[in-house]
Write a structure and sequence with these properties.
With 443 residues, the chain is of the alpha+beta class. 31% of the residues lie in helices and 11% in strands. It is globular, with a radius of gyration of 26 Å. It starts with a helix and ends in a 10-residue tail after the last strand.
Length: 443
């Protein structure tokens, strides 16, 4: 086939090869379409694929060889690394992530090579106000109601970090209610991409079909960074000596309260936490009223999973239009004081300022992965979180209930700006109260 016939077969809807930006992954192309015959001289390699990875059947995908492999490798958690690897293998073999149509962002069920759902992936650029969000509702919100655009207390488009941060806090304290979540990079043709990205992938595919040894820096669609949350509810079981089923649920509920209050989650509605009920016989009892623990079968196990933590870690307490209350504060369980089991688990840790600082340092390592990371805003986020920890610690010591906890004044614990050279750790922080309240204010 001649060069002219090759160009006619590409059919790219007036896409100009030479207009592509320099970071499109192509090592080199000629400066005009008449010089396309020079393409074979750009660069050749005997084998451009990663060892053991066959992407010939899926040239549109990025695959594991198109970005740094170590990004999705977690030496401290080989099991999580294995699950992400299974997701990548499944994508390479045509088992693509499936979009979740509920919610206001682009999120996807990720499957393993056996087509079993193993996780939920939420790309950064498909978040509620991300530039590639496939849900039109938030686009209409942004277009028709710009004065109420987003949440003024949150950093925009960092929900994926918030998801991973909630998992980090949960693991650090030992709550065991957040399915493990990490930041990963994935690529799939089922994700929402710009048309130009898809056309570039088709262009590279057509060129490599004509010149198999041509080398590109990146094949296929660009990988997306986002949060990867395990789909299976892997949470710690409550203590088995508890006799009443209501007490089992209450222990799990208190852990949810501790998590949400520390990270100041502004979106814990009824759809954002799950209750998993396991009967002793392993059967599902569809006629059981979950609101009435007296109907539960004796010896069952009840576990809570806190999902959708993307609207947490604010850099200030809500002070504009809405207060964004904790919806669980209206539940009957919120009127009971915290149990001794919860105090024994949480209080020794949160009372240790060195532990709190370690938590802040680990969150810093996580949050600074974002290209738009701002050290000043992050410090404000940690100031809010330290204030939440201070209030929670005092509430546990005073034997308060979750309802009384959320009624406490908003406190911010920030680093001292006095320039003191004191070696005492506690002298480097100062607390202040936030007095400004939202226009529509409640708990």
């Amino acid at each position: 086939m001649s060069t002219e016939e090759t160009l006619l077969n590409l059919d790219f809807d007036k896409l100009n090869i030479t207009s592509a930006p320099p970071d499109d992954g192509v090592v080199s192309l000629s400066s005009s379409s008449e010089e396309i015959c020079l393409v074979p001289e750009v660069g050749f390699e005997g084998n451009v694929d990663s060892p053991g990875v066959n992407r010939e059947s899926q040239p549109l995908l990025g695959g594991r060889g198109d970005f740094e492999v170590s990004f999705n490798h977690f030496p401290d958690d080989p099991q999580f690394s294995e699950l992400v690897w299974q997701a990548e293998v499944a994508i390479d073999n045509g088992i693509f992530p499936e979009r979740i149509y509920q919610g206001s962002s682009g999120s996807y069920f990720v499957k393993n090579p056996g087509a079993k759902i193993i996780g939920v992936f939420k790309p950064k650029d498909e978040e509620p106000y991300g530039r590639l969000n496939p849900k039109w509702t938030k686009w209409m919100h942004k277009l028709c109601c710009p004065c109420c655009f987003g949440r003024s207390c949150l950093i925009p488009n960092q929900g994926y970090l918030s998801e991973a941060g909630a998992s980090l806090v949960d693991s650090k304290i030992g709550l065991g209610i957040v399915p493990k979540t990490r930041v990963v990079k994935l690529v799939s043709e089922t994700f929402n991409y710009l048309r130009i990205d898809r056309e570039r992938s088709r262009l590279k595919r057509a060129i490599t079909e004509q010149f198999p040894n041509l080398r590109f820096n990146r094949m296929g669609l660009p990988p997306k960074v986002g949060s990867f949350q395990l789909f299976d509810i892997q949470v710690a079981k409550t203590k088995r000596h508890t006799r009443k089923m209501n007490s089992i649920l209450n222990l799990q509920f208190e852990r949810l309260v501790v998590l949400d209050y520390i990270i100041r989650n502004t979106d814990r509605g009824n759809d954002n936490w799950l209750i998993k009920y396991e009967s002793p016989d392993g059967q599902t009892h569809g006629d059981i009223d979950m609101r009435d623990p007296s109907e539960w079968v004796g010896g069952c196990d009840v576990r809570i999973a806190a999902i959708d933590n993307g609207l947490a870690f604010p850099f200030k307490h809500p002070d504009s239009w809405r207060a964004y209350p904790y919806h669980w504060a209206w539940l009957p369980h919120a009127k009971r004081p915290f149990s001794p089991e919860t105090k024994e688990l949480v209080l020794p840790l949160l009372s240790d300022m060195n532990f709190v600082q370690e938590l802040c340092d680990e969150l810093h390592l996580l949050f600074k992965q974002d290209k738009g990371f701002d050290k000043g805003l992050f410090e404000r986020q940690m100031s809010v979180m330290r204030g939440q920890v201070l209030n929670l610690t005092q509430a546990l010591k005073d034997n308060k209930s979750p309802v009384q906890l959320v009624q406490m004044p908003a406190v911010i614990v920030e680093r001292s700006k006095s320039g003191s050279t004191s070696s005492r750790f506690f002298d480097s922080f100062q607390q202040r109260f936030q007095h400004k309240s939202p226009f529509f204010s409640w708990w």
